[in-house]
Amino acid sequence: MGASPAIVMILFVAVGCFMAYPEAVTAKHTGITRHYTFNIKLKNITRLCHTKSIVTVNGKFPGPRVITREGDRLVVKVVNHVPNNISIHWHGVRQLRSGWADGPSYITQCPIQTGHSYVYNFTITGQRGTLFWHAHISWLRATVYGPLIILPRRNESYPFVKPYKEVPILFGEWFNADPEAVINQSLQTGGGPNVSDAYTFNGLPDPLYNCSAKDTYKLKVKPGKTYLLRLINAALNDELFFSIADHSLTVVEADAVYVKPFETNVLMITPGQTTNVLLKTKPKAPNATFLMLARPYATGMGTFDNTTVAGILEYETPSSSLKKRPLLKPGLPAINATNFVANFTSKFRSLATAKFPANVPQKVDKKFFFTVGLGTKPCPKNQTCQGPTNTTKFAASMNNISFALPRIALLQSHFFSQYSEGVYTTDFPAFPLIPFNYTGTPPNNTLVNNGTKLVVIPFNTSVEVVLQDTSILGAESHPLHLHGYNFYVVGQGFGNFDPENDPPKFNLVDPVERNTVGVPSGGWVAIRFQADNPGVWLMHCHFDVHQSWGLGMAWIVLDGELPNQKLPPPPSDLPKC
Questions:
Q1: Can you give the C-alpha Rg of the chain in angstroms?
Q2: Which of 312, 169, 273 shows the shortest CA–CA distance to 229?
Q3: What is the pLDDT, as a whole number, of residue 15?
């Protein structure tokens, strides 16, 4: 980017609206800088006949769309006007050498305190597609989230038919109660948190829920057109099935990476995942209206919000009353349809073309094996708890370490290494310290250890991680998200991972590349990535309840030797703890 204002076109987006900009300012290979302002403020919102004050960006729920292009620089000033601390995570953005802008509180930054601001400044490098942004502290992302849409560079096209229209659809969860009160009570009592009261499409429930007839998402379409639906699961704690009655969908992208197109009537999408699908409308407007439904895929033993959200797909027609049209409803798999999900996820494959290659690490420098699951912590003295027993609290862990957030941000602590003592240790186990039959009869001792333990890896290490679900307090699917990286999903299966017989079956040719993967319930998944991005990177379950219980860890990726392999110093406005 040149320094001259005549060369650099600055695009101001007040309140998050997208404005066009002159073609002339954009050279072929350099992006432009786009400015957004996020005012974090309270807003009264009514859903299900409940009015409450929620934390929002610019008073919008869901929050504003951030629209950019591959190669552009985003400069987002976040100003905190609410009593809560806040930080914003740009979910799925690689953040190459811009880890200070990643956003998870106490990992790459201290949160932005009331009355303070922070500017997130980063460039979109080698990515295009659908991502999203959300709060990354406690459960504030229940209401603080919105789409991050990365268009291809100018004059570049999609590797699929150009859609007539593009539509983001965000799946969310609505709580009548304050989500902060819900998780605080759960952590206090040690019990499972109260579940949400509704699922939403773009912030709206539907007529199936109490007094929500007017709060229904409608997608109006024209016959004979192709629509690109940008689906984002921003729900807090639930994987969701999605289907549109009498319409098939063609999956073309996952987590902002193009995939080999495949057709399906039903999708499953975990929290933290995005999926772009093409919807081809019928050649003539049919005499029917079509329901779009989403409901949970649930495998754990805990309670969950067992409701269904409906939206309406409606064909635009010159006349004929809509009320006379029959309403068609799609079928969805059983709530715990684990085999359907395994079959569905196995269909995702990278394009693996010259233009969009699958750069899977063929050789591995470091192998890790992490168990992922639930456990317990002892109840404090003189307190009765509501965990699995009245003397225990629910917990969650990786390799039996329940991740404890530090008091100052890990990246700061690492960068100014004199501060790291007493903040974290670098002895996170590469393998379970006490192996057991992970998916068989669980051990009697389910207590976890607490700690802020990290793994240190040299720059450009090729890493393989096998993530193994456990049956402790019930086998369950866990959507694992890695910050700062995409990874290749080279294998998955049910039961215990077999280090002898499973690796020969790994797909090292065209595995899907993602930032969030569902660890199968009672099974395992193997991922590979090249550690080419220095910094401190969180890896955690994207069920917020499990993250709150400690299901996470972090990687320190050291600087390389060359200047462009080192993390620059933090910006001057980095929040203080």
A1: 23
A2: 169
A3: 34
Alpha helices in 172-234 (DSSP H): 179-189
- Quote the CA–CA distance of 309 and 201 in Å, as a whole number: 7
Instruction: Say how far apart CA 258 and CA 356 lie, in whole Å.
Output: 8
Distance CA 434, CA 554 (A): 21
The pLDDT score that the predictor gives to residue 19 is: 31
- What tokens were used for 263? 């057709």
pLDDT at 421: 81
Q: Measured between alpha carbons, how far is 40 from 133 in angstroms, rounded to an integer?
A: 14
Q: 474: closest CA among 192, 163, 245?
A: 192
**Token pair belonging to 571:** 């910006």
* Predicted pLDDT of residue 30: 78
Amino acid identity of residue 541, one-letter, is C
The closest alpha carbon to 1, from 100, 93, 118, 122, belongs to: 122
Give me the residues of the chain with pLDDT under 70, please: 1-29, 319-323, 418-419
Distances in whole angstroms, Cα of residue 444 to Cα of each of 7, 190, 376, 399: 66, 19, 11, 16
The closest alpha carbon to 556, from 366, 402, 271, 358, belongs to 366
Tokens standing for residue 558: 């050291």
Task: Indicate the SS3 state at residue 417.
Answer: helix
Structure confidence at residue 191 (pLDDT):
97
β-strand pairing of 478-482 with 516-519: antiparallel
Q: Find, among 176, 244, 179, 183, the residue nearest to 205 by Cα.
A: 176
